[in-house]
From TrEMBL:
GO biological process: one example: glycolytic process
Positions of substrate binding: T22, G23, R59, E83, C84, D85, Y86
Source domain of life: Bacteria
UniProt record similarity statement: Belongs to the phosphoglycerate mutase family. BPG-dependent PGAM subfamily.
Protein name: phosphoglycerate mutase (2,3-diphosphoglycerate-dependent)
Pfam families noted in UniProt: His_Phos_1 (PF00300)
UniProt cross-references to Gene3D superfamilies, sorted A to Z: Phosphoglycerate mutase-like
The enzyme's E.C. designation: 5.4.2.11
Amino acid sequence: MATEIVFETHSWSVDNDRGIATGWLPGSLSDRGRELALELGERRRADRLSAVFTSDLARAVETAALAFAGTDVPILHDWRLRECDYGDGNGMPAAELHKDRTLHIDRPYPGGESWRQAVHRVGRFLGDLPLRWSGTRVLVIGHVATRWAFDHYIDGEPLEELVNADFGWREGWEYRLT
């Protein structure tokens, strides 16, 4: 049986406002981000979710906690859903860090990981998901690396194309993991 996955990015953070690439730093939601997290909850509470999985980074955890406060939907934190580890670049200006992401498809950021390593890490989460959640609908709250892994492993998109494309934020992406 297929597992239905709804993917949402963590809500808007203070670092998003400042143009900072948070990476593996915890980050925190801005006032706008807290409002958007509440809207996410309103949008998804009646979505037949069996569970919510979230990156263990603070900005994703805070998004899930606000969105699903007062519900009985279990919220499970998984480090494999983290953003790419930019290593020494965690916390630097995003425009500077991401000026040529193709350089880091296979070459790790100094002190961190490559995009392929990050996508592979999320792929291990996808490999484990059907063991307990087959035939259910789950929500995953994550980051760019999380979505690229879903696009790569579920939809067959080449990582080289994903790294060069605009992220194109929207209210949720839907996947079927078979």
